[in-house]
Amino acid sequence: MAVHVGDGDDHGDGGDALGREGLGGRALPVTLDDVREAQKMLSGVARTTALEGSRHLSRLIGAPVHLKCENLQRTGSFKIRGAYVRIAALSEQERAAGVVAASAGNHAQGVALAASLLGVRSTVFMPQGAPLPKVAATRDYGAEVRLHGQVVDETLSAAREYARRTGAVFIHPFDHPDIIAGQGTVGLEILEQCPEVGTIVVGLGGGGLAAGIAVAVKALRPDVRIVGVQAAGAAAYPPSLAAGHPVPVEAPVTMADGIRVGCPGVVPFRIVADLVDEVRTVSEDDLSSALLLCLERAKLVVEPAGASPVAALLADPGSFRGPVVAVLSGGNVDPVLLQAVLRHGMAAAGRYLSLRLRLTDRPGALAALLEVLTQVDANVLDISHVRTDPRLALTEAEVELHLETKGPGHCAEVGAALRDAGYLVTT
């Protein structure tokens, strides 16, 4: 886990002044007053999402852990907050021209709903490979959806060109003060719901949510530690913080598409650099294990990006000062991805075992194998039986098994039982 330690312990007790100035007296582009004004604008629009305690995570880290459930927000993520504030602040002339956005999912839906609520025409460009449920939801919220490009960068270029050609206002997903102010209302809610909070852990992509929370929370409670979490394969903030300016990473790769951003936003970067105490990275195994935990223990459907704070808690549970609030930023996970991630999460947790073995191709051989697995209480999820591979001897067959197990210890027990029964096992 890569860790960036910022200057969080040096914020002092400046109170509301931190809503206007960063470290060293530098003016910040978003203030506490901006966030409070955004909260007023969002009254009756965005939900005040629940803060749910997690006994399992609390026992793990040795301090109270609460989950801020933005996965239960309208459109399934926090994005409606910033999108609504940004569009609501447009002039009548700008509204008449309509708005345009580019997104693979959450921002698309937030812009579509916000524009519909405000009576503004919206066009959303999405990659051609965007998950069908997200495309359908964006249309249902009232946007005209245009599929363009294979990656978000191509989609973004198309949206900007459309804005230049038509005069529509481009709504950036994170790099604008109004967007950040809207997302910052999550921080105000956390302080209202958990006044004693010691640490807030939040996913970090472009930086809009983390920056907004940091502005609100550090202004009122400078002692609260704020930890941003990035996927290791898409971690642009650690090198950017080291360089002192946004630095792009080439070809970011992670299942967590909500935080798969190649370069920090200029506006949120200034705030994150000044006010966020630490940035951590988590692996794909951490993310899938966290998603599985949210589903099984918290009974919450969370997308990989939304589960990133939980992934950080699981990866290094002894390093967080409680009480801890983990922000579950979204729940819009594609069912196909969910299936794959859950299986990966079970494997990472030692609860899913894939293996191959050879046996004599004779009647009853497969039944004997299954009897061994029954004796060690392994649940067979899938089995394939191959007889025609040229690598096999005339009297051999190869079996591939996918098993549900009870954990790493049980996996070892299953392997030992098969070897004791005379099978040559490969994974």
Automatic annotation (TrEMBL):
<feature type="region of interest" description="Disordered">
    <location>
        <begin position="1"/>
        <end position="22"/>
    </location>
</feature>
<dbReference type="GO" id="GO:0006567">
    <property type="term" value="P:L-threonine catabolic process"/>
</dbReference>
<protein>
    <recommendedName>
        <fullName>L-threonine dehydratase catabolic TdcB</fullName>
        <ecNumber>4.3.1.19</ecNumber>
    </recommendedName>
</protein>
<keyword id="KW-0456">Lyase</keyword>
<dbReference type="Pfam" id="PF00291">
    <property type="entry name" value="PALP"/>
</dbReference>
<keyword id="KW-0412">Isoleucine biosynthesis</keyword>
<dbReference type="InterPro" id="IPR036052">
    <property type="entry name" value="TrpB-like_PALP_sf"/>
</dbReference>
<dbReference type="InterPro" id="IPR001926">
    <property type="entry name" value="TrpB-like_PALP"/>
</dbReference>
<feature type="compositionally biased region" description="Basic and acidic residues">
    <location>
        <begin position="1"/>
        <end position="14"/>
    </location>
</feature>
<keyword id="KW-0028">Amino-acid biosynthesis</keyword>
<dbReference type="InterPro" id="IPR050147">
    <property type="entry name" value="Ser/Thr_Dehydratase"/>
</dbReference>
<feature type="domain" description="ACT">
    <location>
        <begin position="354"/>
        <end position="427"/>
    </location>
</feature>
<dbReference type="GO" id="GO:0004794">
    <property type="term" value="F:threonine deaminase activity"/>
</dbReference>
<keyword id="KW-0663">Pyridoxal phosphate</keyword>
<comment type="pathway">
    <text>Amino-acid biosynthesis; L-isoleucine biosynthesis; 2-oxobutanoate from L-threonine: step 1/1.</text>
</comment>
<dbReference type="InterPro" id="IPR005789">
    <property type="entry name" value="Thr_deHydtase_catblc"/>
</dbReference>
<dbReference type="InterPro" id="IPR000634">
    <property type="entry name" value="Ser/Thr_deHydtase_PyrdxlP-BS"/>
</dbReference>
<comment type="pathway">
    <text>Amino-acid degradation; L-threonine degradation via propanoate pathway; propanoate from L-threonine: step 1/4.</text>
</comment>
<dbReference type="InterPro" id="IPR044561">
    <property type="entry name" value="ACT_ThrD-II-like"/>
</dbReference>
<dbReference type="GO" id="GO:0030170">
    <property type="term" value="F:pyridoxal phosphate binding"/>
</dbReference>
<dbReference type="GO" id="GO:0006565">
    <property type="term" value="P:L-serine catabolic process"/>
</dbReference>
<keyword id="KW-0021">Allosteric enzyme</keyword>
<keyword id="KW-0100">Branched-chain amino acid biosynthesis</keyword>
<dbReference type="GO" id="GO:0003941">
    <property type="term" value="F:L-serine ammonia-lyase activity"/>
</dbReference>
<comment type="similarity">
    <text>Belongs to the serine/threonine dehydratase family.</text>
</comment>
<dbReference type="GO" id="GO:0009097">
    <property type="term" value="P:isoleucine biosynthetic process"/>
</dbReference>
<dbReference type="InterPro" id="IPR045865">
    <property type="entry name" value="ACT-like_dom_sf"/>
</dbReference>
<dbReference type="InterPro" id="IPR002912">
    <property type="entry name" value="ACT_dom"/>
</dbReference>
<comment type="subunit">
    <text>In the native structure, TdcB is in a dimeric form, whereas in the TdcB-AMP complex, it exists in a tetrameric form (dimer of dimers).</text>
</comment>
